[in-house]
Amino acid sequence: MPFSQRAALTLLLVHLVRNANGLAPLERFLDSYAEHPAEVEHRVLLALKGFPSSAAAKPQLAAASVRGIDAEHVLLPDDGFDLTAYARVAQQVAADRYCFVNSFSLVLSRGWLASLSAALDQPGVELAGATGSWTSNRDFRRYQLGVHSAYDHVFEDRERTRQGFLALARMSRPLTRDRGRLASRAGALVGMLRDRNAFGPFPAYHLRTNAFAVTRDWMLGLMISPVRRKADAYRLESGSTSFTSQALRTGHRVVVVGANGSAYDPGDWDLSMCFWQGRQQNLIVADNQTETYRRAPPELRRLLSQLAWGQRAQLDRDEP
Fold first, then answer.
1. Residues spanned by the domain of 232
2. pLDDT tens-place string over residues 73-87
């Protein structure tokens, strides 16, 4: 059924459904959602991005219905990226709090939604996510260029590191070309000059947008710059004015929540074992990036872990 403003919602689970992605990602998410009980009262909203009408989304709506999921829906234009769509949902659909999950999210843990929502009840917590990272685009570009960087004593060799990340890219895009060392360095220089102060130094604390819970009041106050390119989306997620940075600058806590029910503050995110660390054994909601890490051989997993956590990268830690 279309969304109705008749009643305010306490907790709204919002799944972003892009027309361009087809039906399969939604079906995978719905199956994972049905398999792992949320253990908290909530409503489900499908944020239909890029669909010309509700009729055009009939297969998507039917996918929820046949699984016994009573999902409402809202139509959104196909512009911007995830956070743009989430902000529009918050403006259009009233709820006390939301949990936003992106198109390729997969639920892994029973009680996942209850844990994310409960984290917002802790003192000072404004954002609670399934994954977070310390990755610094600025320092990685500096490393690529041979300029002093926090990654200088993390990665072993620039060319081997470049080849490793090329191999990782080819895991999802097999036809990715090797542009060569000089072209890669030129790209890093262009990016650094273009973005200037858009990204902070390592550790650049940022929640990832694959799954996070937030109150409506905070979401409505979020400052979102225009998002026209992927680089704009990166700045909004992990830059100096990211949604995480906006919360931290106002004195709020931003936590990562694990399958063990614990909420980790930014300085302890490397210990959570949720993202690109260990076996990701404490992860509650997976996505393309966590899946890349899971499928990668150990030498490539190490690169990802080092990018996210620097010298605190750990592949062999068994417990969160």
1. 9-112+126-131+206-241
2. 999 999 888 899 999
